[in-house]
Amino acid sequence: MTQTPTAKSPSQGQASARFTVPDAHPMVTVLGSRDALLRVIEKAFPGTDIHVRGNEISTTGSAADVAMIQRLFDEMMLVLRTGQPMTEDAVERSIAMLRASENGGADGPETPAEVLTQNIVSSRGRTIRPKTLNQKRYVDAIDKHTINFGIGPAGTGKTYLAMAKAVQALLSKQVSRIILTRPAVEAGERLGFLPGTLYEKIDPYLRPLYDALHDMLDPDSIPRLMAAGTIEVAPLAYMRGRTLNDAFIILDEAQNTSSEQMKMFLTRLGFESKIVITGDVTQVDLPGGTKSGLRQVQDILEGVEDVHFSRLTSEDVVRHKLVGRIVDAYEQYDSRNGNEQHR
């Protein structure tokens, strides 16, 4: 995209700029169907006038806003050149990343285009990739460290991205098997009251892991891989006494492990293996008086070499927008009322 020089009005700090979109990119890819992407930008910068004529986009407003919109369009063009379409959600996240960078809230060289175009694994025409800066750093940390913790609220992609990295490692032959586990702790329901055999009772606890696998692999191949032991899905109790070599191991819902269970799991690590532990310390379902292993392990292992903690927030929620607002509302309620609801 080419830009004209910016003209500023010193007295009011106003600026204007024009951007020319290359003919190779239809304007609908830049502005969105029925100008949906343009409306997202206008809403984010209400004090700036944005006009479109042909393949030219002109902006007038504060110098800071005009400069940021210029950066935003540059990032959008970089994404579009990869063949990936821009969405309303991607534009909103790009604006948030640029503002965080502008305010000094994000360090490092990552740009929105780098975050939004990092592919992890593709399956059936669908590509899984990080959507926020923290998610990209979480994915990068999994590549760099042997033991990784992904800690954050529901919907931040902790487990889903870890599963994608596990599938990527299996397909590229970095590991020979994937082991998925989580504690079978009741969340307000009694395990014993569920019908069926032990495996049938445990299955509902492991179902989210199966669902993620079906998004990333050919569903017809999953039973075959599980029968061969290439993919194993089992409750945490089944890990005791084992040494797990040449494997990508994911412990999900780790906030529901006891201190003893967490230590037991971490010491299963074998050669050529990688461990990712995910959980949300605000959603502990353990009986009263039992300390969460995930809460304790942060004090024990913080700073230990080759162990990394990635912390995600409500800004990294990639489910429905309302989920992020719900997470924030609960955090505000807890800060106002302390732990009174537990008492």
Please write out the topology.
Blueprint: E1 2-3, E2 7-9, E3 14-20, H1 27-31, H2 36-44, E4 49-53, E5 56-62, H3 63-81, H4 88-102, H5 112-116, E6 121-123, E7 126-128, H6 133-144, E8 147-151, H7 158-171, E9 177-182, H8 198-216, H9 222-227, E10 231-235, E11 247-251, H10 259-266, E12 274-279, H11 293-301, E13 307-311, H12 321-337
Parallel strand pairs: 8-12, 8-13, 9-10, 9-11, 11-12
Antiparallel strand pairs: 1-3, 2-3, 3-5, 4-5, 6-7
Helix pairs in contact: 2-4, 3-4, 6-7, 7-8, 10-11
The major pleated sheet works out as: 6 strands, parallel
- Mean pLDDT reading: 84
Number of helices, counting only DSSP H or I runs of 4 residues or more: 12
Fraction in beta strands: 15-25%
Q: Shape from CA axes?
A: globular
**Secondary-structure element series:** EEEHHEEHHHEEHEHEHHEEHEHEH
Kindly state the percentage of residues in helix: 40-55%
In the predicted model, the low-confidence regions spanning at least 5 consecutive residues are 5-11, 186-191
Radius of gyration: 23 Å
Number of DSSP E strands: 13
Structural classification = alpha/beta
Strand order of the largest sheet: 10-9-11-12-8-13
Quaternary structure of the protein = single chain
> What's the N-to-C terminus distance?
59 Å
